[in-house]
Structure formats: structure tokens, C-alpha cells
Amino acid sequence: MKRLAVLLSAVSLFGVLGAMQPKQPEKPANVPAGHPQITIPKIGENWPTAKPEDVDSVDAIIKAFYDAPAGAPGQPRDWGRFLSLFVPDARLIAARPGPEGSSGAMFLPAPDYVEANKTYFEKGGFRDTEIGRRVETFGNMVHVWSTYESRRKADDPAPYIRGINSLQLLKDGKRYWIVNAYWDYEREDNPLPEKYVGMPKE
User: Fold this and answer.
1) CA 125 – CA 69 distance, rounded (Å)
2) CA separation (Å) from 20 to 6, 13, 26?
3) Among 54, 153, 166, 193, which residue carries the largest CB count within 10 Å?
4) Which pTM does this prediction carry?
5) 97, 187 in Cβ contact below 8 A?
6) Which domains does the chain show, CATH number per domain?
7) Rounded to whole angstroms, how far apart are CA atoms 34 and 45?
8) pLDDT along the chain (202 residues), means of 10
9) How far apart are CA 156 and CA 72, in angstroms?
10) Cβ(165)–Cβ(182) under 8 Å?
11) What whole-number distance in Å separates Cα of residue 104 and Cα of residue 134?
């Protein structure tokens, strides 16, 4: 009986000690063994809320990306709508040629991009039109290779520049987000291949 009492006491003690141990966070579903735990940050209260119809599909968010900054000279833009398409840590990245065949990139957080361009866009007019798109998807990642042409006014007979936007999207289960936007433009030594012109068939 004495040995049984000691055994029961030990079991009870281990139970108490086990209850005192901090609970380990649950491992996210389907995370490979050995990978670190992740915490998905919540979007801050000061970040603009997107219109559901702007972010409920790949097509919708790409159309909003082109539509939000577009407008005639003197026309105000809804920059809150533009920012709402992006995760707060998103970068807009412009590839630029340099001297003697070199190149570089300019990285701007989304709010800084707006501050740098809003006066130029609103004063002089700006409109990008999408003229080609390729989409690749894996898991929650979407890569959109989007060809554009730029005009200052919607009725300008010809664009003043063309280029390609490389857009990385995240599908979070409720909506799409733009994680990064990275682009380069057409020039004499960098012609736009015709294979990148043309929208996907419905």
C-alpha cells in the first residue's frame, strides 16, 4: 500500500509540473518539419481598407492597380484606394539602365511612391493601359507579368512609353494583396517582345 501511495503521489506531482509548463504554440498546418513558427502581422488601423470588389480576384486587383492612379490633368486621384491594394510593407521597384551597360533599381515603399508621383500624375495626367498579361500561380503565390502602355490623356493617339510590370500577389484566403510591383520600360536597346502583348482569352 505504501509503495502504491508513493507511486500515486509521483504521478500527481508530474501532472502538476506538466500543467505548470508553458504551452508550446501550435504548429501551423502543413508547415514542413524544422521550419520556424510564423506570426502573420495584422494590418494596422491606419492602413486604407480595400473595396471588396477591387481585391476579390486576380483580374480585379490588376484592374484596380491600373485604374486608381489614372486620370486626366487636374483630376484628383483616390490614393487611399491605390494603397489599399498593397500589403503595408510592399515595395514599388523601378529598374533603370545606367551608364556603360550597367543597371540599377529604385525601391520605394508604397506611401513614398504615392508622395513622389501624385503631383506629377495629377498635374500632367497619367494613364497606364494593360495590353498583355501572363499569370502563374502556386499555393498562395501569384505572379502576374503585365504589359502596359502609358499615355498622359486617354485620347492620346499613341503611348509615350511601354513596359512590363512584374506583380507579386498574395492570396490570404479572403482577398488578394500586391506584395511587390517591379517594372522596366521599353527603349531602343530593349524592345518589347511581341509575345508579351495580348490579353488572355476569357
Assistant:
1) 10
2) 21, 11, 17
3) 54
4) 0.80
5) yes
6) 52-194 (3.10.450.50)
7) 34
8) 47 45 52 73 82 98 98 96 97 90 92 96 96 97 98 95 98 96 95 91 59
9) 11
10) yes
11) 25
